[in-house]
Write a structure and sequence with these properties.
Strand content: 25-35%
Structural class: alpha+beta
Distance between the termini: 44 Å
Strand order of the largest sheet: 26-27-28-29-30-31-32-33
Largest sheet: 8 strands, parallel, barrel
Number of strands: 33
Bound molecules: beta-D-glucopyranuronic acid
Oligomer: single chain
Number of helices: 9
Shape: globular
């Protein structure tokens, strides 16, 4: 059961205290933390930033690459709060956490990219409390993202991800203490239908359950950007603690691509005497998303996606959120005319979506279902036809449960963002077996059931998922292709690469799926400053020639409704013979300076 994942906000009824800062921290190589009583407090420690990814703090490779258990500790104060409830909310802890207050286990969470909130009202004291978090960053095939752990002779663990990004870990997003009314707003959702000059808004509200809930009245108010009241409605009680109302907004100012218009929504609960019990406010945007034939429609108008596959990745910060980096990234993306990105390969910090809401950016929101092929070089193996029987494993049922849980958490968290126009439920799994179809049909079913806006669902398919062999493309509302013709396939031979790319797209065309396609990944590793008149691989010229070739193909197929190049910026990966200081497919360097191809994209996207 998912608790409230509402973004932590101050309102007239809610208090929020940040617990971010320097926390005590220690590795637990031999897993003796419990013997040493760490859950009650760390007897040995250094200081570590929260939020932060511990790996990039260190000069010692053993620490940077540490895999296993590690612990954090901080003291925090709960102020006197009358009869309110106290919630501890973690933005994300990678990959799993067990939380202790004053030595007592108060909850656990699996999955490193989504928030969780624990009700600690009866488990903590007014005044000072000790908070300890045991974290584990091991990878396996039963949780997301997938990988394995190699155990060395000396007992040391080494993470072997089945994915191509560094296994950054820790308390990577903010931690907040919330003081909320006993009966509070737990969740709300909005969905829209457009008719001439009006929007029909369907609003659902869930309040925390308690006997007196029946007497509470829920209201929703919408205020536009100029401060004008656009709606003020009482919701109907539909069952204990749940409320609904469909109401009309006349002449709505729609949220649009790169033309964002937001309304402030305020949900309130009042008691039978009219006293305010709880209030929650945030910004939403009125817009619809549909797939119609081979087009993706925003507010019933076709949109062509231009942009990036990204990562949360920056020097020193690792995967932790930072407003300045996010601002810079949006500036870079706007500079070259992008309108969208995919949160490859995991849900990002919530602030990314808030900024996209403000900028009019379109997000394909991806769950961390990456590494569903047994390979530490799946980016290479994806091209070779290698098959690893991933979905034929007995433990796949456990993985599926975790996968569904994360899909539900992601959609619950992100459903009200106008920027989120689709959910991506996987990246590059083996999709050629009946088992994979069975596996994913349940995942898609769960996502369809939970999304109030019934947004399009997709998943990124690798090369082995060909038109002839892929069993899962039927599940997708639009088909996302990751293809590296001219890099992993026919690298350095762009004519041959072009032929192969066209041949594959012809075969998809012949299949007549009737659906839109998006290129969700294509790109070449490129060392900035490496120039070559003959355009050899790894040079900035090769990257340009590669994209020119790919664009010439993409432009010849009407069902192609978008291109998201791989990757926005160079990013950190596990080390290996295929990676030079990480993955170099960035259009920008890791410090966000353009490679030559960025100007090519600018020219193309500003005119497309
Ligand atoms: C694809 C993966 C992506 C990799 C990319 C690459 O989806 O995570 O980083 O290839 O090789 O297979 O650059």
């Amino acid at each position: 059961m998912i608790g409230s994942l509402l973004y932590p906000r101050m309102t007239s009824t809610r208090m929020k205290f940040s617990l971010d800062g320097m926390w005590k921290f220690t590795f637990d190589r031999d897993k003796t933390g419990y013997d040493k009583g760490f859950e009650k407090g760390l007897s040995e420690y250094e200081m570590m930033p929260v939020p932060g990814s511990f790996a990039d703090m260190y000069s010692d490779p053993e620490k940077k690459n540490y895999c296993g258990d590690f612990w954090y500790e901080t003291d925090f104060v709960i102020p006197d709060h009358d009869d309110k409830k106290v919630i501890l909310r973690f933005g994300s802890v990678t990959h799993r956490a067990v939380v202790y207050i004053n030595g007592q286990n108060i909850g656990e969470h699996e999955g490193g990219f989504l928030p969780f909130a624990l009700d600690i009202t009866d488990k903590a004291d007014i005044g000072i409390n000790k908070l300890v978090v045991k974290v584990n960053n091991e990878l396996n095939e039963e949780t997301l993202p997938c990988g394995i752990v190699k155990k060395c002779k000396d007992g040391k663990l080494i993470a072997k991800p089945y994915f191509d990004f560094f296994n950054y870990s820790g308390i990577q997003r903010s931690v907040n203490l919330l003081i909320l009314p006993k009966q509070s707003i737990e969740d709300y959702s909005v969905s829209y239908e457009l008719e001439d000059n009006k929007a029909i808004v369907n609003c659902d509200v869930t309040a925390s359950k308690s006997e007196s809930n029946l007497n509470l009245t829920a209201r929703v108010r919408l205020v536009d950007e100029n401060g004008n009241l656009a709606a003020d409605e009482e919701l109907d009680l539909t069952s204990e603690g749940t409320y609904n109302k469909k109401f009309t907004v006349l002449n709505p100012v729609l949220w649009n691509v790169l033309d964002a218009h937001l309304y402030t929504i305020t949900i309130s609960l009042t008691d039978s005497d009219g006293n305010l019990v709880d209030e929650y406010s945030e910004k939403i945007g009125i817009r619809t998303v549909k797939v119609s034939g081979t087009q993706i429609l925003i507010n019933d108008k076709p949109v062509y996606l231009k942009g990036y596959g990204k990562h949360e990745d920056f020097s020193v910060l690792g995967r932790s959120f930072n407003y300045s980096v996010a601002k810079r990234d949006y500036e870079c993306m706007k500079w070259n005319g992008a309108n969208s990105f995919r949160t490859s390969h995991y849900p990002y910090a919530e602030e990314w979506y808030q900024l996209a809401d403000e900028e009019g950016f379109l997000i394909i929101d991806e769950v961390p279902a990456v590494g569903m092929m047994r390979s530490t070089h799946n980016f290479v193996d994806a091209g070779t036809g290698k098959y690893t029987y991933f979905f034929e494993t007995p433990t796949v049922g456990t993985l599926q449960k975790n996968h569904i849980m994360q899909v539900e958490e992601m959609i619950t968290r992100d459903k009200n963002h106008p920027s989120v126009i689709a959910f991506s439920l996987f990246n590059e799994p083996e999709t050629t077996s009946d088992q994979s179809y069975e596996y994913f049909s349940k995942i898609f079913e769960a996502a369809r059931a939970i999304d109030p806006q019934k947004r399009p669902l997709t998943g990124a398919l690798e090369k082995n998922s060909s038109p002839e062999k892929c069993k899962c493309h039927k599940l997708l509302d639009f088909i996302s292709l990751n293809r590296y013709y001219g890099w992993y396939i026919s690298g350095g031979e762009l004519d041959e690469a072009q032929e192969k790319f066209r041949d594959e797209l012809d075969r998809w065309k012949a299949l007549d799926t009737g659906k839109p396609f998006i290129m969700t990944e294509f790109g070449t590793d490129t060392m900035p400053g490496n120039h070559s008149l003959t355009g050899t691989m790894w040079s900035e010229e090769y990257q340009k020639n590669y994209y020119e070739m790919n664009f010439s193909v993409i432009d010849d197929y009407d069902f192609m409704q978008g291109e998201q190049v791989w990757n926005f910026a160079d990013f950190q990966t596990s080390e290996g013979i295929f990676r030079v200081g990480g993955n170099r497919k960035g259009i920008f360097t890791r410090d966000r300076e353009p490679k030559s191809v960025a100007f090519l994209l600018k020219k193309r996207w500003e005119n497309k």
